[in-house]
Amino acid sequence: MSIPAGIIRGRLLWFSREPVDPQDEDAYTYIEDGCLVAQDGLIVWSGPWADLPQEHQSADYVDHRGHLITPGLIDCHLHFPQSQVVASYAGSLLEWLNNYTFIEEQKYGDAAFASKMAARFLDQLISHGTTTAVAFCSVHKTSCDTLLVEAEKRNMRMVAGKVMMDRNAPDALLDTAEKGYEETRQLLEEWRGRGRVEVAISPRFALTSTEAQLEASGALVEAYPDALMQTHLSENHAEIEAVCGLFPAAKDYTDVYAQHGLLTPKSLMGHSIHLSDRERGALAESGAVAVFCPTSNLFLGSGFFDLQATEKAGQRHA
To answer: Is the pTM higher than 0.70?
Structure first.
């Protein structure tokens, strides 16, 4: 059944590309008294209110003049199970994981709890204007299923993956290389082509995955080349030192992922703060995306993301 056209009036702003500098007005469109016409969930017309097509002029409209109307925001790095522990005090990343995150994530093996939290999580995102996100779930397959079910109900653009972890975490949060591979494969197959949601291959980070699990992740990347892969890279100095100790044959942290086939144009590398010139070059060559998170990095004292060095190296970033 056709949904009647919805008309919204207000100040319109959208970007067609990233601005070069604050004076780059060609990067965006701004209309002081603008109008959007939506039909069946899609925008069918936008422009100045004075140019509203004749066929829509007799329809009722929602008047948002004085307010700014923009496309929905996109968040490329979220942790669904952390929504209840945001802003809990910790002196560093690894302390945060052990004292709060790993404890909270153990609850998400319960489907009823995960479903309740997924609804709350997505409603909170929408209330802040975020309509598209890429999220880590817990190690439990059900946590990913419930989040995608709730996103599907809302027709949200949501990418999610169950994290793969087979070491350096509580026993209740560990899978195996084989189980992580199989459950992720099942999710990829079960959610393929369903609405606006999809599954990301999600080895949490090299610190919590063995060589075998990273190899399994690389096999999934090869088998499902259209799927996004998300992980973490170089967020904290202690993390980097620990990873390099676990993988002594690698040139550096970035090389750990490169050796396992995890650097591709579909790779989202969370944080990517403390990188050498060699690592920046390797990421740029692979097309992998550095996803930085200023609020998290400031809160945990992890460090600043060097946007200038990133752009100079030709790295993609989000």
So the answer is: yes
